[in-house]
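To: structure subgroup
Subject: Chain for Friday's discussion

All,

I'm putting the inputs and outputs inline so they're searchable in the archive.
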Amino acid sequence: MDIVAAHAAKHPDRPALIEGERALTWEEFFRTRNRLAHSLAALGIGAGQHAIVYAHNALENLVSSAALRVLGAVAVPMNHRLTTDEVAYILDNSDATTVFVDDAFLPMAERVRHAARVEHWITLGAERRPWAAALADLLTRGSDGAPGVTTMGGSMVYTAGTTGKPKGALRRAIDPTAVLPRLAALNCLDPAQVHLVAGPLYHSAPGGFALYAQMVGGTVVVMRKFDPEEALRLIERHRCTTTFMAPTLVKRIVDLPAAVRARYDVSCMRSLVVAAAPCPMRVKEQALALFGPVLYEFYGSTELGVNTVLRPEDVLRKPGSCGSAAPGVELAILDDDGRPVTPGTPGELFVRRYDGVFDEYYRNPAATAQTSRGEWMSVGDVAWMDDEGFVYICDRKRDMIISGGVNIYPAEIEDALHRHPAVEDAAVFGVPDAEWGERVHAAVQLRSGHRVTERELIDFCRAHVADYKTPREVSFHEEFPRDSAGKLVKRLLREPYWAGRQTRV
């Protein structure tokens, strides 16, 4: 089904895409996408081929992805923060035949293009290169007519690669109907919605929710780069009703001065969806106070989609939970021998295979096999479930601290630290200990103008968590390493403590 054609026919003059002062109606979006798709087809780009989109958030990013999908091709978003070697690796590993690149990343393209097997480079911005076609020229040459559609092309998102090389989580095709029950549970099914894209489109969730808004016929408002006050301004200006944000972005909004937050009317918001990392309860409480009872949370992954949903009425009733099983999803928490654990006992979280999980890690059958235990699939997260079926994520299995043979989950300790008024952010991890194997270390970033000692933070934690979970030491940092979505890259804080060691336990 060609969803862009369907919405262009139904409401041609309604805005489809907005970025800054630029906008495309559904009719304009439809015709622009068609012109690009026909020009791409003339270059030999078609069903099953992989094409990288290496671009900042912009209209051109979304139009390029839409044109690839209608041809049955697979769009592969490229992370902006990668090094030259990492970009070259993904160009090779993905078997991409085409790369769309905006002006900001042309210097990187110059460095890697001779080593890549890419057949077509397409520039998205004002700059031209003799070795690349220009989007503007392709749009001029293409026909307005809709290409014939059989199957909507899929996507391949490369995971962060905290260990080893990044892995391409491939979905060969997208079935728009498969995700509808989860969208309904997150209150994102309204065809009149106006959706704010706050995070970078190369991440699976911001890109996915932008696509979902298009699927139901909504308007997508694109932020080129996140700024907390600008997010509030855009919500008010365009009367945005839905958005997805990682917890760090929500935190930056609720931490704005009260006088700044009071300038903007955000009463139009109907669904503020949070995921991608544990969200501190303090942030949830303040988000509810600012936006009203519209905070939804889910647990999921690039590979396995949306697996749980926490509705606004349960946010305060179930502190620390990411919700219960999403519609159409069956969950299980299993021990290391594959046996179900009792309620309240941590184990590895598994999802029964359903329409919505990825097909495979591209060119990596061993990694694909590691995600499955029969019909059950896991990405290695540790969780426990209460007697009502609400899930509480403890941490990534690889982030678990084992001290004196006892499993310790950093997320619980980080949540306690976030409640201290001087703490801006916290990251808890294990460091080597000759006696215990690992001891608990807390890296802390303080709020501007605040002071607190190591002993005060340790005592504060001891009042909120068990003694064996309490940090044995605290390091203070002016800044934390983050990716372009604002998400903390904990491994960069942890690795120096383990440098030169053969093992990490």
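Points worth raising on Friday:
The chain has four domains: 1-16+24-174, 176-297, 321-397, 400-498.
The mean pLDDT is 92.

D.
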